[in-house]
Amino acid sequence: MKINALFILLFVTAGLVSCDKEKDYNYADGTVGRSKIVNFPLIETKGDKLIILTQGATYTEAGANATLGGATTTYTTAGTVNTAQGGVYNLTYTASNPEGYTASDWRTVVVIGNDVSANNFSGTYLRAATGVTSTWTKTANGIYTLENPGGAGVGAGLTVIAVNYSGTKISIPHQISNDFGEVSSGSESYTLTPAPPQYSLVFFAGGYGTGVRTFVKQ
């Protein structure tokens, strides 16, 4: 009888524990136990990251795909594009959730001004600080390939797109390179006089720092 009573007690206890476990998993929607489920937003730009247009061309905004918890959600766009004026226009797309967490993506639109058609910045430029050269090659009106944009000894072979978008204004627009991921430039200047021509910029890429780099045409 003692054995049977013990068996019955164990069976009842196991049943109560089992019921408690089932009850524990009966969570309210949007929660796990006492914890609230937080869905984080995701966003991805549609179309090309870098778009280059001529002045006066039509720009069609492709937008972005934004989701929250697997469902489409709204997003905001910061920045505008003026195709009537040469410039580098940076757009940022941002989605958020009710808790205030955000996710962003980007696009850069370059408008090549009509006033750069006579310019040709092709050539080899020496960075005296390292004794290393960078090479500009014109591929279209206002558009260049720039080899070794940072003028670094370890940067040979890296090629990015550089633009002369208005007058003598230059830029390495925000873009994705094959070797360094996202790259861009800042604090740019290009001077033709006094000879020889020279330019300066900050090259933003992994491991390059934030110092201004100056190059003189050879």
Fold topology:
Blueprint: H1 2-24, E1 31-32, E2 35-36, E3 41-45, E4 50-54, E5 64-68, E6 71-72, E7 76-78, E8 87-96, E9 102-112, E10 123-127, E11 132-140, E12 143-147, E13 159-166, E14 169-171, E15 175-177, E16 181-191, E17 198-204, E18 212-217
Parallel strand pairs: 4-9
Antiparallel strand pairs: 1-2, 3-5, 5-6, 7-8, 8-9, 10-11, 10-18, 11-12, 12-13, 13-14, 15-16, 16-17, 17-18
Model description:
The protein is mainly beta and 218 residues long. It contains one helix and 18 strands. It has two domains: 72 residues, Immunoglobulin-like (Sandwich), CATH 2.60.40.10; 103 residues. It has a nine-stranded antiparallel sheet with strand order 14-13-12-11-10-18-17-16-15, with no helix packed on it. Strands 4-9-8-7 form a four-stranded mixed sheet, with no helix packed on it. Strand 15 and strand 16 form a beta hairpin. The longest helix has 23 residues. It is globular, with a radius of gyration of 29 Å.
